[in-house]
Amino acid sequence: MPLRGRGCVAPLWKGQRFPMSACISGWVMQHKEPAVIEDIFADSRIPADAYRLTFVKSLVMVPIRADSPVGAIGAYWATRHRATSEEVELLQALANAASVAMENAQLYADLERRVQERTAQLDWPTGIWSLFLFRVARFARPAARR
């Protein structure tokens, strides 16, 4: 997609899905290492047709959760640029933080599910006991009035 306004960029491939074997994100995930690409049209790992109508000339892509990747995060340049080791390290730090956030979200969801399950387990006997006491009290009242 072309640039919109001054320095504003529209989402490049919003809503589109690419097979891991046909995109640089997939390559990064499969190889568990960053990809630094100075010229996207000169690198065979890049599906050139997907980038032809975009502003992208150079990129760096890093895996999220390097030991067992679940995704990739990239930085793109509108001019030819060779990413520095500092830029790659910064992007990898961002990917690592995203990995921790994803793991924390999963842990929180698991904990929330377990709390709901345990609450249901505790509420069931309490509910049955309350119903029992209510019925006992209801039948005991008329007998006490006699």
For the structure shown, list the relevant keywords.
146 residues, alpha+beta, Beta-Lactamase, three-stranded antiparallel sheet, 50% helix, rod-shaped
Describe what you observe in this structure.
This protein has a three-stranded antiparallel beta sheet with strand order 3-4-5, with helices on both faces. The protein has one domain: Beta-Lactamase (2-Layer Sandwich). Residues 1-6 have low confidence and may be disordered. The protein contains three helices and five strands, in the order ββαβαββα. The longest helix is centred in the last third of the chain and has 61 residues, at 85-145. The protein is rod-shaped and about 90 Å long. It has 146 residues and is α+β, with helices and mostly antiparallel strands. The protein has helices spanning 24-31, 48-51, 85-145, and strands spanning 3-4, 8-9, 35-37, 58-64, 71-77.
Percentage of β-strand residues: 5-15%
CATH architecture: 2-Layer Sandwich
Helix content: 40-55%
**Order of adjacent strands in the largest pleated sheet:** 3-4-5
Largest sheet: 3 strands, antiparallel
The count of DSSP E runs of length 2 or more, i.e. the number of strands, is: 5
CATH topology heading: Beta-Lactamase
Mean pLDDT: 83
Order of helices and strands: EEHEHEEH
Poorly predicted ranges: 1-6
The Rg value, from CA coordinates, equals 28 Å
- Count of individual helical segments: 3
